[in-house]
Write a structure and sequence with these properties.
The chain is an alpha+beta fold. It contains six helices and eleven strands. It has two domains: 170 residues, 2-Layer Sandwich (Formiminotransferase-cyclodeaminase, Chain B, domain 1), CATH 3.30.990; 107 residues, 2-Layer Sandwich (Alpha-Beta Plaits), CATH 3.30.70. Strands 1, 2, 3, 4, 5, 6 and 7 form a seven-stranded mixed sheet that branches. Strands 9-10-8-11 form a four-stranded antiparallel sheet. The two termini are 18 Å apart.
Length: 292
């Protein structure tokens, strides 16, 4: 059986309905299953998620890059989400542990082609990283887009200087994670930041409720709301509902009410029993092996 992979490329555009429509149309032209394709105005970011045979997924990624990247200029980009590139990050998740080695090899070929076609420095991360630089996304994003310039980069593929409009791309095979947001009413951004900081502190202290939980507090000016944005990097041992309940209680103690919970990207069937507070669409549920 041909190897199956999931790709979740994050693009630094989120305010063009025309481009989003064109992305959706492009996705329908390929033999892949589309799980998610949504833009956010305040993040100024679009997340796509699709799966299928390796070569088909790679073809979609390259086609989307050809469509999207010429429209991005990060010198004129404003958004609350951390970023260093037009194609900011592109995780690849194999459907089972037996596919990790093959996914790492094929992802390097993809990175080489993408770097050559768009003159992009590409940093491999997580399981694809080879010891040349930092391996995790937060570390690689340190300094943001502006921090790429005025120094020689050490990418795995592509030029040693940042692309003037597109910065650099982070790409690689990683474990499955769950991306979710808790949106809160009002514009007291200090509340979201306090809650996110508390999550990070509890994680570093070893609190088992927050193992592998990354969190940021962000403003959503267009909605007059605030957001606790989280990645659950160890979903096999960290349940969703208790975290959502904890965030809600922390907000209530500070006089801030819940607006909604959001799932960004995909979730596995085995995660759903402990994610009753997290709305999702059927297409977002993907059967991915426990050990990827």
């Amino acid at each position: 059986m041909t190897a199956q992979i999931l790709a979740v490329p994050n693009w630094s555009f989120g305010r063009s309905k025309t481009l989003l429509r064109e992305v959706g149309e492009e996705l329908t032209r390929h033999p892949v299953e589309v799980h998610y394709c949504e833009s956010d105005l305040d993040h100024n970011r679009t997340v796509t998620a699709f799966s299928g045979e390796t070569e088909a997924v790679h073809a979609v990624l390259l086609a989307l890059a050809d469509l999207i990247l010429p429209a991005i200029d990060l010198n004129r980009h404003a958004g609350v989400h951390p970023r260093i590139g037009g194609l900011d990050v592109c995780p690849i998740i194999p459907f089972g542990p037996e596919g990790i080695a093959a996914a790492i090899d094929s992802t390097e070929r993809l990175a080489a082609e993408l770097a050559g076609r768009h003159h992009l420095p590409i940093f491999l991360y997580e399981k694809s990283e080879k010891g040349r630089h930092e391996a995790t996304l937060p570390e690689l994003r340190t300094g943001g887009f502006g921090g790429l310039f005025g120094r020689e980069l050490q990418p795995d593929f592509g030029p040693r200087e940042a692309h003037p409009n597109l910065g650099a791309t982070i790409l690689g095979v990683r474990d499955f994670l769950i991306a979710l947001n808790v949106n809160l009413l009002g514009e007291r951004i200090e509340v979201a930041r306090e809650i996110a900081s508390k999550i990070r502190r509890k994680r570093s202290e070893g609190d088992p409720r927050f193992l592998g939980v990354r969190a940021l507090g962000l403003p959503l000016a267009s909605r007059q709301q605030i957001q606790v944005s989280m990645n659950l990097t160890l979903p096999d041992i960290t349940s969703i509902d208790p975290i959502l309940q904890w965030v809600w209680m922390q907000a209530m103690e500070r006089g801030v009410a819940l607006s909604e919970n959001e799932l960004i990207g995909v979730i596995r069937p085995q995660d759903l029993l402990a994610a009753t507070r997290l709305p999702h669409l059927p297409a977002q549920v993907v059967k991915i092996g426990n050990a990827v």
